[in-house]
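To make this tangible, this section ends with a sequence with its structure tokens:
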Amino acid sequence: MTTAQAATVAVIDSGVDYLHQQLAHKMWLNPIIEYRGDFPRAINGWNFVENNNLIFDHSLMEKFPTDIFGYYEVEARFNAGTLTAEDRKYIQEKLSDENFVTKVQEYGSYAHGTHVSGIAAKNADHEIIGIKYIQANVSSILKLLKSMKTNLSEEQKYHFYLSYIAKNQGENFKKMAKFLEKHVADVANGSFGAPFKQIQRISDSVYKEIYKKEPDDTESFKGAYFLQSYILESYKESVAKTKNTLYVFASGNDGLNNDIYPFSPANLNQSNTITVAATQGSRALAKFSNYGEKTVDVAAPGVNIYSAAPGTNNIPMSGTSQAAPFVSKVAGKIKDINPKLTPADVKKILMETVDKKAFLKGKVKSGGMVNEKRALRAAELSLRTNLRRAIYEANVEITQSTKSLIGLESTPMEKLRFVEMPSIFIE
């Protein structure tokens, strides 16, 4: 049950099924419905794809086969290494059906925002704001750029193209951030982004357009690095302006080091952003999870996480997309306990009350997994003492955990699979 002064967690994703039984009573209700302006009739959030207040399209449920939910259950057993002979036969049949595989992938995207919201809202009093996020269409942007007449050199033109693509995406983020600023979201979960490999495909296509040849490996890496850096720079002003919001970003699912291969927006590294890697229970970094001692802050469980799915369903999914909302949930609970804490304060609590793990040393800044109980105790103590003391006392009171918070301890590393997070680009 939400409270009158509950904290708010915005889920920036593919849409949220606001009618789901686990979410309906936890959805944010705009206290002041405006009929004019940038976000008319915004009730539970905003759809930036179609620029309206419809944050979820229930009619699309009809396009998915009913046995898709059974497939997710079998896949969970696959991840856990507990497949039966019947399960193996079922998977072989389904994976040989190209149409079914396509539908599974489409459903993964369709259900993504609802699944993330279910994790962020579980056993919490805060409210969920649904944000359906827009993607930048690279093909359309390139078409526009090619129509422009310039006297730039090839190198200048190349960087102009890259910076223009980044600026376009930055403008999309700016619109979304304006909504968060207007409605003062306490936490914003961002289980979306642009992997380095996708950015590399985009920068390579720009290189070929300008130089009329394929880039070599060095030029390809440089181009992707430049574009990713431009994108991150385009977000910074919006993040700084929404100073009362803590952004929680998924680190990405490429199994790469974000210190070397930057991921946007995960690599923003601002005082009011925190980036999350995924673990396999409490015993290992998930094989698919991105990491980075300088650019990824904390970790949380992200394998076989059961949560809400469109309709009346619950399904398991794996990914850093599932780890990030666990941290968003804890952040929202911290704000519920002590609304006076700033985003930087909440981040400090989350990072300094972690369970230290040897497998996370050198992988994330804090060297550990978020510990909900200890973080919430620090928030309680912060009501009567300074933050540094509150964190110290919470760490003394609640010893290091050796048990898994969420996820399966027995999951074989080599069998992990995940649902792709929404991309910020359509190529």
Notes: Residues 8-28+58-426 form a domain with the Rossmann fold fold (CATH 3.40.50.200). The chain has one domain: 8-28+58-426.
